[in-house]
Specification:
By secondary structure, this protein is an all-alpha fold. The protein has one domain (about 1-100). Helices cover about 75% and strands about 0% of the residues. The chain contains five helices and no strands. The chain has helices at about 1-10, 15-20, 25-40, 45-75, 80-100. It is elongated, with a radius of gyration of 15 Å. The N and C termini lie close together (about 10 Å).
């Protein structure tokens, strides 16, 4: 379930962020993994899933933490209460999905 959620959340990222970070993160493969699991294309390969969980998810977590750190170091913009709530919800969802995938 968590790998599916990570794939869904990756699909919801802005095109701008995906384009800016495509050299560091393979967003298409993340979405592809989601589709593979969701639709059970062929048979599930335990080795691929294990490598994803044990190698790729920690890399994604480190990447996300770096992006969040960069964003937090930028001067704060004045956000409406609604914009602030949306941003906080998105940040929480991504962190929860990554945390759950590491369980």
């Amino acid at each position: 379930m968590c790998l599916l959620q990570i794939g869904e959340l990756a699909g919801g990222l802005s095109n701008e962020l995906r384009e800016e970070t495509k050299e560091r993160m393979q967003w298409g493969l993340i979405r592809g993994m989601r589709n593979w699991i969701a639709h059970s294309y062929n048979e599930m390969d335990d080795e691929i899933i294990w490598d994803t969980v044990s190698i790729n998810i920690p890399l994604l977590l480190r990447f996300c933490n770096e992006i969040i750190e960069q964003e937090n170091s930028k001067p704060q913009q004045i956000l409406s209460n609604n914009d602030r709530a949306v941003a906080e919800t998105e940040k929480t969802s991504v962190h929860e999905a990554i945390r759950d995938a590491n369980k």
